[in-house]
Amino acid sequence: MKFLRRPYAYAGLFALFLAGLTAFFLLDTFVLPHALSAAATATPEGAAATPTASPAPAAGEAPAATAQPTAAATPVPTALVTDTAYRDGSISVTLTTLREYDTDIYVADVVLSDASQLKTALASDTFGLNVTEKASVMAQTHDAVLAVNGDYYGANARGYVIKNGVLYRQTVRSDSAYDDLAVYADGSFAIVNEAETTAQALLDAGVQQLFAFGPALVENSEISVSTREEVGQAMTSNPRTAIGMVSPLHYVFVVSDGRTSQSAGLSLYQLAQVLRDAGCTCAYNLGGGGSSTMVFNGEVVNNPTTGGKRSGERAVSDIVYIG
Amino acid sequence: MTYAAVSALCALFYAVYRSLSFGEDSLFMRWMFVPPLALGALPALFCLLLGRRPVRWAFYLWNSGVALLACGCLFRGIVEMSGRFTQYDRVYWVLGGAALGAALLRAVFAAHRQPQKRRGV
Fold first, then answer.
1. How far is A303 from chain B (nearest CA, A)?
2. Considering only CA atoms, which of A156, A160, A107, A129 is closest in space to residue A296?
3. What CA–CA distances, in Å, run from B120 to A188, A207, B108, B114?
């Protein structure tokens, strides 16, 4: 105790304690990966499935391989592939680059023959917090024709997570004022709120994908972003990612550049306008900023920024892809 | 003076961080300057005007409580402005409140003992 009577001895020790405590909390929140389970696949016939609580792989180790249900091999039809288009017997993607609001905007018009071709993938095929991977790597791993970053579920410990018909998390999100986007087995979209339903109820109702970012941009063909409630965020120009539905099996993926001298970025309202003008009846905002990435035929087509204005892909939790 | 300088530094830090955050904001980081100002500078001014010096351990604990609350605001602000959510900030509120409470108890105890000491002389 006599030591603590020395000038600044207590202050120095306490400062060390406070710095160490804060450093640990920051590391645990932003850096340290918490792998909770390997990615699972829903059982055939659309039955709901939940991932087993198998020992999660330690950081740096490859995740356990997920047993895939065997299926009869079907021949892949010959695909027409160009820089701006992809066509095969069941998937049609047309990529258009717009220049609006001083921003380069990449719009992918997607028509599918089967709703199961709209999928999501987890970083390293592992569900957990701070488990991330570049969108281009995930797209390559899953042979995606088109991929965009998802809802970055791994940034938060709360919020429903349903990916490819599998329920991973059913705690209500902290910012429940924001709605989620539900994608049903028939390919239709719906805007839902976690405070009004349970994750299991959504799964039982046939939801295959659930995105918890937001806000909803277009509902019933009308822009639903309120400039009154979201003045700060709505008015700020940033890189953006969004997904919209024109009709079941007809989708629009939008990614915009931003935070560069070439592209200012979009506000949420401007993003909603782009999706509405593309014919979307329902559209939803996904992770933006440095996360915004679009991969088409194996190439990153936009100019993602990370660490502020530095160009480069950011590692993300998950992607939405066509394949 | 130190507390006033810390308050000013907190306000300046928020202004700079906000300018680099691409439109994101946090009420916790905005009001980060309040604990050192309201719980530090003002009580210090009060003691100065009354000509009283705080008891050593009450002083240490009070400063610790203020530092914990300010640090909690900073941490919660960083997390919120990154678009995430955390519950770790509860540690700061609990420890900070406990430190402030312990400081008050120590000061009250010391004030109670002093008159008894004088009677014993």
1. 17
2. A107
3. 85, 79, 19, 10
Q: Does the beta-carbon distance from A236 to B79 stay under 8 Å?
A: no
B105 and chain A: CB distance < 8 Å anywhere? no
Residue with tokens 């509860």: B90
**B98 vs B91: CA distance, rounded Å:** 11
Mutate to test the interface with B, among A21, A151, A152 (most CBs of B within 10 A): A21
Residue numbers in B near A158 (CB within 8 A): 85
> Does the predicted interface ipTM exceed a cut of 0.95?
no
Residues 239-268 of A with CB under 8 A from B: 259
How remote is the C-alpha of A184 from its chain's centroid? 17
pLDDT in tens, chain A (323 residues): 666 666 688 889 999 999 999 999 999 999 999 998 998 877 654 444 555 444 344 344 333 333 333 444 555 568 899 999 999 989 999 999 999 999 999 999 999 999 999 999 999 999 999 999 999 999 999 999 999 999 999 888 889 999 999 999 999 988 778 899 999 999 999 999 999 999 999 999 999 999 999 899 999 999 998 765 454 444 578 899 999 999 999 999 999 999 888 999 999 999 999 999 999 999 999 988 889 999 999 999 999 987 666 678 989 999 999 99
What predicted TM-score, i.e. pTM, was given to this entire model?
0.82
Cβ of B71 and A22 within 8 Å? yes
Please write down the HEC assignment for all residues of chain B: CHHHHHHHHHHHHHHHHHHCCCCCCCHHHHCCCHHHHHHHHHHHHHHHHHCCCCCHHHHHHHHHHHHHHHHHHHHHHHHHHCCCCCCCHHHHHHHHHHHHHHHHHHHHHHHHHHHHHHHHC
Euclidean distance between CA atoms B80 and A91, whole angstroms: 40
Residues of B in contact with A30 (CB under 8 A): 82, 84
Using CB atoms, pick whichever of A14, A232, A308 lies closest to residue B23.
Answer: A232
Measured distance CA(B32)–CA(B96) in Å, rounded? 14
The shortest C-alpha distance from B24 to chain A (Å) reads: 7
Which chain A residues contact residue B84 at CB under 8 A? 29-30, 155-156
A29 → closest Cβ in B20, B24, B86:
B86
Q: Which residue of B has its CA nearest to A267?
A: B23
